[in-house]
Design a protein that fits this description.
about 240 residues; alpha+beta
Length: about 240
């Protein structure tokens, strides 16, 4: 009877521990995301929609061809659907060292008078109260962190706010052997911060959301199994 119930439980636990994506990519490289999937990072009400086709300028009575009209045009991204390049140069260092030492001692005593009766010679009538307490706490902690990331990514303008600021979003995927590296970026940029080469630095992007990770064989090995993660969450020890 015990084995009858143990076998299904073991099967369910085994299937639960198998990641769906890992089984899907078994014996092959991870599949890349469809083009345009990175635009969903900042997609809100009608902000991530591509613009409608611009109205064609009548050229029937012009002596010049439209192919030369972009010669003196501002090449910076200003409208929905335009593309600009974001330069990511993160070199952050942080070091914290905290030490706390707390010690407290208290003592007090009280002697009661039994209606003027001398209680020194009779211990049964002794009405003295004494109390003392002490506590000691000491803590020491340190944090050392260093992060460095130098990348460039092309993003798409997915929306223009009422004040002219640009909503940008984009993703980049690079697959090397069996590992897929994914870079996602989204945020809000000012048009005046975009330089003449149609580039902008990441520190000038408000509400920046930068994610750099991946999936593949190395990521699967580095991450603990699902069963171990469940045990770590619910274990009180």
């Amino acid at each position: 009877m015990t084995f009858r119930y143990a076998a299904p439980v073991a099967a369910v636990a085994f299937l639960a521990g198998c990641s769906g994506q890992a089984v899907k990519d078994l014996n092959r490289a991870p599949a890349m995301s469809p083009i345009g999937s990175g635009l969903n990072l900042t997609k809100t009400n009608e902000m991530a929609l591509y613009p409608k086709e611009p109205q064609q300028v009548a050229t029937g009575y012009s002596l010049w061809s439209d192919s030369k009209s972009a010669l003196f045009k501002d090449a910076r991204a200003l409208n929905v659907g335009d593309i600009l390049t974001v330069k990511i140069n993160i070199d952050d260092k942080a070091m914290f060292d905290n030490t706390t030492d707390r010690k407290r001692e208290t003592s007090w005593s009280k002697k009661f008078n039994l209606f003027g009766t001398d209680t020194h010679n009779d211990s049964s009538l002794d009405a003295n109260i004494m109390n003392s307490s002490s506590s000691n706490s000491k803590g020491d902690g340190s944090i050392v962190r260093k992060e460095q990331l130098n990348l460039q990514i092309a993003v798409v303008v997915t929306g223009v706010l009422d004040n002219g600021n640009l909503l940008i979003s984009g993703s980049q995927e690079v697959r090397v052997n069996q590992e897929l590296r994914v870079l996602n970026l989204a945020g809000i940029a000012r048009p005046q911060d975009v330089d003449a080469e149609n580039r902008i630095s990441y520190e000038k992007i408000a509400e920046a959301r930068i994610s750099y990770g991946g999936r593949g064989r190395l990521s699967e090995i580095q991450n603990p199994p699902v069963g171990q993660q469940v045990v770590d969450v619910f274990s009180p020890f």
